[in-house]
Automatic annotation (TrEMBL):
Protein name per Swiss-Prot or TrEMBL: Branched-chain-amino-acid aminotransferase
Keyword check for Transferase: yes
Positions of modified residues (N6-(pyridoxal phosphate)lysine): 162
Lineage, opening ranks: Bacteria, Bacillati, Actinomycetota, Actinomycetes, Micrococcales
Keywords assigned by UniProt, alphabetized: Amino-acid biosynthesis, Aminotransferase, Branched-chain amino acid biosynthesis, Pyridoxal phosphate, Transferase
Cofactor(s) demanded: pyridoxal 5'-phosphate
Length: 323
């Protein structure tokens, strides 16, 4: 790590997958100094392999690095790491419907030092794993559990960074959700009128009766999802009004009850877009059981997935060829 905050990166190589050696006193093991990214590479019909908005992932990794006092990684090195890994492991990239190669770049503090301070030695790596079609064909709305007992991240904390610690903090809430028959957990800002933040691993969108779209504003506590920003763009391309603003749990409940809110969906790299079925708040359910996915939800979903998989034209220059 050099004093500019940009890593003096060296020793780049592709190596066989396997355990990595870490000193038992490595900073990552004790103070959670770790950040990561999640992205997918899709094989297009002509055999070429592309990833989606890699520049945005590189920029987010570097924002996370600043917050976690880790060195930044130049975008060219980030892209090169993806290219080399994917080129070395091409047989792992599936080409079936909705299938992809999930890419997980991450950076960890490897310096052995027990005092609490940023590590001066770090390691950046990328691992990859074939990923099936998230829904295995049919897209089904998922039920969401309202987390009243746990917050994910507070203001000024690390919520806007993609840092492992945020996910450690959401595990207990996820268990609680599953114990109540829900697939994902919804985090609220309990100190701000129960403003809707995000799900454990996805951002949230609301479609109103007049066709306008709302997503919670970036408050510093939620992750700036790349799928989120792409949906904002695609919505505006369609001439829809898309607003980033505070939306509270009460507005959600009342909006669904009155029919003012017609669709709710979640989005992220893994599932692209997931319709939200019911919201469960303790013993109360918001929304109807067995409702079909919303029309706009499914239409934006197929446009976005189409761009990623190369069957819809990429008019925004969002795709980067890896091999
Ligand atoms: N919020 C959280 C907490 C997440 O983990 C993710 C997944 N990275 C998202 C939102 C969605 O982000 P993206 O669209 O970049 O995958």
């Amino acid at each position: 790590v050099d004093p500019s905050g940009v890593g003096g990166w060296h020793d780049a190589r592709v190596e066989p997958y396997g355990p990595i050696a870490l000193d038992p006193a490595a900073g990552v093991l004790h103070y959670g100094q770790e950040i990561f990214e999640g992205m997918k590479a899709y094989r297009h019909a002509d055999g070429s392999v592309w990833t989606f908005r890699a520049d945005a992932n590189a920029a987010r990794l570097n924002r996370s690095a600043i917050r976690l006092a880790l060195p930044q990684l130049p975008e060219e090195l980030f892209l090169e790491s993806l290219r080399q890994l994917v080129a070395a492991d091409q047989e792992w990239i599936p080409s079936g419907d909705g299938e992809s190669l999930y890419l997980r770049p991450f950076m960890i503090a490897t310096e052995a030092f027990l005092g609490v301070r940023p590590a001066r030695e770090v390691s950046y790596r990328v691992i990859a794993s074939p990923a099936g079609n998230y829904f295995g064909g049919e897209v089904k709305p998922v039920d969401i559990w309202v987390s009243r007992n746990y917050a994910r991240a507070g203001r000024g904390g690390t919520g806007a960074a993609k840092a492992g610690g945020n996910y450690a903090s959401s595990l207990a809430a996820q268990l609680e959700a599953e114990a109540h028959g829900c697939k994902q957990v919804l985090f609220l800002d309990q100190f701000n009128d129960n403003a809707v933040e995000e799900l454990g691993g996805m951002n949230v969108f609301f479609v109103f009766r007049d066709g306008s779209i709302v997503t919670p504003a970036l408050s510093g506590t939620i992750l700036e999802g790349i799928t989120r920003s792409s949906i904002i763009q695609l919505g505006r391309d369609r001439g829809l009004e898309v607003t980033e603003r505070k939306i509270t749990l009460d507005e959600w409940r009342d909006g669904v009850a009155s029919g003012e809110i017609t669709e709710v969906f979640a989005c992220g790299t893994a599932a692209v877009i997931t319709p939200i079925g019911r919201l469960r708040d303790g013993d109360e359910f918001i929304g109807a059981e067995g409702a079909a996915p919303g029309e706009l939800t499914m239409s934006i979903r197929s446009e976005l997935l189409g761009i990623q998989t190369g069957v819809v034209e990429d008019t925004h220059g969002w795709l980067t060829r890896l091999v």
